[in-house]
Amino acid sequence: MRRRLFYCDHHPIPLPAGHKFPIEKYAMLRAMLAADGVYDLEPAPFALAEEIALAHDPEYVAAVLNGTIDPRVMRRIGFPWSEHLVRRTLASVGGTLAAARDAIARGVGGNLAGGTHHAFRKEGSGFCVFNDLAVAILTLRRDGLAARAAVIDLDVHQGDGTAAIFEEDDAVLTLSVHGENNFPFRKQRSRIDLGLPDGTRDDEYLAQVREVLPKVIEFTPDVIFYQSGVDALAGDRLGRLALTHEGLKERDRTVMEAAKLHGIPLVITLGGGYGDPIERTVQAHANTFRQAAALYPQMESSR
Fold first, then answer.
1. Is 115 within 8 Å of 271 (Cβ atoms)?
2. What tens digit of pLDDT does each residue of 207-257 get?
């Protein structure tokens, strides 16, 4: 069965000139992976409002979808509200839901968007409207597909929204390896937090990841969600760490090998990446999915 990835860049978000969100990276990433020819690339389906409401306050969900959201909440998110944003958001969450179902059926699944880990139950933040990771975890649980889940969040920014949503949920392990001195400046409490100092390089970073991964495996999750942000790359405009492309590839390979070795379905989402030039970020994101293609040569049914 052919590997596949889901995308939502065909739903553009109109942003003002000079906006710091790198919206162009998503289409560039899809084009780069299409040129590789190793994945089937499919448009992401829209998530349903009732699925999103498993992780978010229904009033917040309705306000986003119908455009009655408080402008102050939108300012915290960092995007102007529009119908285009709604469609993009529904597809981003839907892509992670589809990738999660692929992972359960095939062993691995991927979304060329998502990883929106700063969204809390009642509000969004940091370019994140809804928390696709939380929605997918709770949807799999509702559908009887995965009772226990782990989130491996290796974005340079702490996965604060995910941590808060699942803080009291013993069936979800949240791991965040992030820059200690970076956004969000008010950290939440993940099950496992590793805050790294500015300038952390490959060797130290990889040692920390390798040390903590066994704790994820010991949790015995039915599925792992991998938030594979690449803003730890040296020179990222919003990151303060100093990883190389090779370091990020080794990071990805380490996570994927652990999941595969233990037969745990793996869901790969994007995350942050704000390089200048943006091509460096796109390359790093592409490398993540190239690692997955190398480690999962066929997407066979896992259970």
1. yes
2. 999 999 999 999 999 999 999 999 999 999 999 999 999 999 999 999 999
Is there a cis peptide before residue 16, judged by omega within 30 degrees of 0?
Answer: no
* 177: Cβ contacts below 8 Å, ≥ 6 apart: 153, 154, 194, 196, 205, 208, 209, 212
- The band of 297, judged by pLDDT with boundaries at 50, 70 and 90, is confident
Residue with tokens 């009732």: 50
> pTM value?
0.96
Exposed e or buried b per residue across 285-302, where buried means at least 16 C-beta atoms within 10 angstroms of its C-beta: bbbbbbbbbeebeebeee
The count of structural domains within the chain is 1
pLDDT level of residue 300 (50, 70, 90 thresholds) = very low
Note whether residue 8 is domain-resident. yes
Report if residue 300 sits inside a domain.
no
Considering the domain boundaries, does residue 301 fall inside one?
no
Q: What CATH number did the domain enclosing 219 receive?
A: 3.40.800.20
Cα-based distances in Å from 146 to 1, 140, 224: 22, 5, 10
DSSP state of 99: H
Residue positions annotated with a catalytic role: 118
In a domain, residue 24? The reply is yes
Write out the two tokens for 13.
């978000």
Range of the domain at 19: 4-295
